[in-house]
Design brief:
This protein is an alpha/beta fold and 464 residues long. It has a single domain, classed as Alkaline Phosphatase, subunit A (3-Layer(aba) Sandwich), CATH 3.40.720.10. 23% of the residues lie in helices and 18% in strands. It has 12 helices and 17 strands. It has helices spanning 9-15, 21-24, 62-69, 84-93, 121-126, 189-202, 226-229, 252-276, 319-322, 349-357, 371-374, 434-446, and strands spanning 5-6, 37-43, 72-78, 131-137, 156-160, 173-176, 179-182, 209-213, 283-289, 323-329, 338-340, 344-345, 381-382, 385-389, 395-400, 403-407, 415-418. Helix 6 (189-202) runs parallel beside helix 8. The chain is globular.
Amino acid sequence: MSSPRFTNRREFMAGVSGVAATAALGSRSQSTNRRPNIVLIVADDLGYGDLSCYGQQRFRTPNIDRLGAEGTRFTDFYSGTTVCAPSRCSLMTGLHTGHAYVRGNAFAGSGIPLRPGDKTIPEVLKSAGYRTGIFGKWGLGENDTTGQPNRKGFDEWFGYLNQAHAHFYYTDYLYRNTGKVTIEKVRYSHDLIATAALDFIRNQKDGPFFLYLPFTIPHASLEVPEDSLKEYRGRFPETPYKGDHYTDQPAPNAAFAAMVSRLDRDVGRILRLLQELGHLDNTLVLFTSDNGPHKEGGHDPAFFHSSGPFKGIKRDLYEGGIRVPLLARWPGQIPAGKVSGHPWAMWDMLPTFAELTGARPPAGLDGLSQLPALVGRSCPVHEYFYWEFHEGRFSQAVRSGNWKGVRTNAGQPLELYDLKTDVGEQKNIASQHGDVVKRLEDYLETARTVSEFWGPGSTQKVPA
């Protein structure tokens, strides 16, 4: 039997009566039935196929794989869109890119920051008594704007504010809360960020916490300390990369593998610390990526099969650009060793966390709580998923059931794929299914509101 489909929170709540948070978590004893800590790890430009538990053959990711072995591996999870800032906006605000305020990357000045009224995951969780921290890359507001992390619900913040600044791992400054911190350029920024995150965990003595870890690895530049690089040096064929923006890298394949391994190492450090402090069994740990794999700084996604079985990479709205890993671990609640094909997306995270913690989510979200899916129960399915993209063109995509529609540019005909039989989107069957094309085109028309910065009807120029 197929799962029911709903388009809004009211229908969702009616549809899961008896499967809501209290029922889903009712198996716990009173002594352990407390709100969990939440650790959300988001890699930067890590492809669906860049983890060994999703098929990577050229290197291993044992600590990240552990999350799936001891929890659930989702095969049909989607990023907010196919590039950084709008994907993270969708994650933080529970809105897909047809309604989110930040729908594209913007680099100059302060970019396009979140507004005071754009409610975020940490703001919602703080209302439920959570301590909140972010360590990594933000991308949704500079230091002097309404989108600065401490103004969007985070008690503690350390890392990069701007995605262009985050291109480089050897920098002379990062931000800690509202101040700029000068660092020695020989210090690897990822290590500083991981250390700050571990310190945050150590300092949580009372009450639940939400830790958001938008790590910068493995986004270009392909830079990594020698203690990680030496494991892979000489193992792969190499085409040296001579940078015009990103850093020169004579061994880009080795550097990429080493960066993902360093990320995996630090996921292991986080899990060990949670175990040492007695937090691990009452912590929901999730691992995902902000979009598909990049082809920058010398990285060759084809060599690593970074997109897995899918077509496309970052900046594509084919599956390879937007379908990303999601691993979820929470002992006693999330089934261990399960593989789930239940489809959901980043904009579902906010209402899911709200449901889990008893917080009240903002009205008008595109997301639906996926708590039942996390704990292995039947869960409502979106009527459709929607994405748009705005670099040099206006492209859109929609998934409804197993039907996937892609319009690569405004005015172009809609491509249609059946993901059940053609997950690689190799055969455009639009000419054979005019009724399906019409339905998906209707979604593309109605799923979005006019944005002042992006797409048809926009009136303001995006900082370039």
